[in-house]
């Protein structure tokens, strides 16, 4: 037996001793610095050693070779017919491979198992049967027994223990004489059984031995066969064999010509062509398909191989016929069968142990960091030498730490702080005394002192002082906050914090920013924890509290109790009445085609709820309960005198209910949105439905509002009505021009619903107010609808629509705009409270119809703008300076044709096409607010138009480009002389007295050029810039740093290459002068004048409900 490492000592004990010594030394020398107790040191050392031994055990278990089987006698060995009962892969193989390839031989060696009859296996590996395994160049052949016999579990177990990975391949050796369909089926079953025992499905090679008449020594061998892809079929096998036949014919012919005795390839090709392919397909079919299919990788052919003896009995010198299989091993992989539960459980337990040890160390480290941070924080917060501002910051950090510990106490600490090391509760208990000491001094006592000071200031005011009434609300908040500090069970943290920050906005010794940032959190944390620590409460000043209560009772009475009664009453009513939706208000009509809203009216604010529940509830509250004083103003010792009657309380509750009633209905109605119409035909359909008295959802909605708006009204008695009529006759001259009240009834909702109910009055008189009526509005809507239908029913609807819209662009008025203005007047007459409802019901229908008329015309004008201006502008100016940083320049004469304010192409286009919707105000163009309703100007167009207009006022004042300005050179350090030449106009300055020199631009149309040079104390004349062309001066200004001094004076500084500044002053006649042309850099003419109408908020709802809209 070869075992060269048997005498070497194992390194496991040495590794354990070294690791244990190092860990013990580290714990010994650093335990004090880390704050480790002796018990904790021992625990860490034990955990470390346990972790080491666990890793070593796992490693040894994974590397342990399979146990050697008990030796069998030589007689028993030879008694077996095929040698299958010999002891399989013993420890001798492991020692041999370890000696030859080192300790990591398992990753360097390939295992190939040969199965089949021993006689046939001996023809290609003669020594394998007797030795059980042979090795050559990293490949080990293992004897796997006869494939037709039952699986040898011992042999499979030995193969599994040899290494964790499965063998690379299984080679089934057979011959054509014994290869039958039944034998292949049996082989497929046996291979399946071996794969289940092995746990892997290994690639299979079939090696067919052919008879040979020539001795092996006289033949030249080579690999012959075909490889199959994964999941091959019998048809693919047949195709591969036919392709192999053609190759064998060519190569065999060449081989016979060279050596006539070597005719194996030709004979094999002849056999395959004469039925062998069909036989192989039928024979190997069970291996390719069916329930016992195996991963057949290829089929090889050869004659019996000659045996070459190696250097020892286990060495094997592979014949050339083996190269086909050996070279293919690197491209195939075995597939695992099932789940390795035992191994998975073993590794899971080992991983769990490792994780637990690691987590324990991590938890110790993290808890130690938390403890150290807390200790440092308590040391810093207790230092009296630091200023108050810094101490408050430290107190904030301590609060944050305590709050974190409180959260962990309720919800659990993070996982990395557990594992038996959590110190959350102990640390929280240790931090409370430190917090209490600092908080009582700087927060609690200071807050109580501040409140006491403010309440004493109120008490010191004279009894008749008007300041008492003004300070009553604040005094109530101050008293309530003060009593909360004395009664922890009454503490409301949010109210207390808000009140204290209002009463204590600044603090001495602390900056305002720091106090506003840290004050709320400091006060809130104290308030939130006061109820859990009642011992933190203050001792209230009974005399001061009593005096403040007496004063507040005289000032604010019982309003607080009234609010609580009202809210309780509403909660009781709300449970019994469902919310009212828009569909409930329009009756049998459908509002979906016209308008919609997602809001609802709470069921408690309806006429039914008032009559059935709210009014009786108010009566019950007034009759059964006396007003209660809240705990702030009632000390439960001295009863408060009742000075408010039940009738007064009922009046206040009723008034408050109807105020909320009005607010709920106003909020609902103002949330209604008019649905968007995508086409003019849709808008006409909407107007048709809107104006139909019988089917209009608007009329149905207004009828519902008429019913709900009369909630709470009390009809006058007959005698009262007669008296009022007589009074109206007597005082007819005092009758108001606009009577906003119902003449027969009165109610609490009249102030809110009267404008709307008056609009619905069909018996309107002729006065100015009543001339606005719903009937008149619907009549106008019908007139507009008929006009629009005439437009759509013409032969050319688009032309008629544009003609209708052109009347507005030209400043004329049509029926559509008149009705739109009438709807706006109706909406305005409803008042500001009804603005949203008025806009949706009376403005947006006509606004939307008008947009449908204007949109095609706006698109047409956009097209005219692009054709008349934008295209020519782009062709003339794009890609030229100053619009682009290139050498070619724009013609000033051509630019003046566009930009002249009176005769320019842009001005003529605006005057001709947009005179009715856009006006010029000074130097700026602005849309006409009235005529341009429904149009959406492109902001880029207005910006560009105003920019070009301002430029024309400066540069093209007289039609052609002409600028007059003055330049003055200024001295600079180390600059002796500067010289500026602009179109043959020269300004030469050599540090003499500065003076203004006039310039004209452009001055010379024949030789335009600008140059700038300078002379410094270190060098002679040098040229800074030389730009030919009309725009040369503008190019020079582009490189200058410009600073505006006043409205007409600018400082120009050019930075020379040597770092010296070249200073000039420019004084312009109008605006920025030549500098205004710099605004053209990167300028692009807008492509459109008008934008498409923006999508409204309810467009999505329109699209979703479009399919439900009735025809």
Automatic annotation (TrEMBL):
The source's superkingdom equals: Bacteria
According to the entry, every stretch annotated as the IcmF-related domain falls at 394-708
Start and end residues of each Type VI secretion system component TssM1 helical domain = 856-961
Domain named Type VI secretion system IcmF C-terminal is located at 965-1069
| TM region(s), chain numbering | 12-30, 42-59, 345-366
Annotated region described as Disordered, given as residue ranges: 63-85
UniProt keywords, alphabetically: Membrane, Transmembrane, Transmembrane helix
Q: Which source organism does the UniProt entry give?
A: Rahnella aquatilis (strain ATCC 33071 / DSM 4594 / JCM 1683 / NBRC 105701 / NCIMB 13365 / CIP 78.65)
| Protein's name in the database | Type VI secretion protein VasK
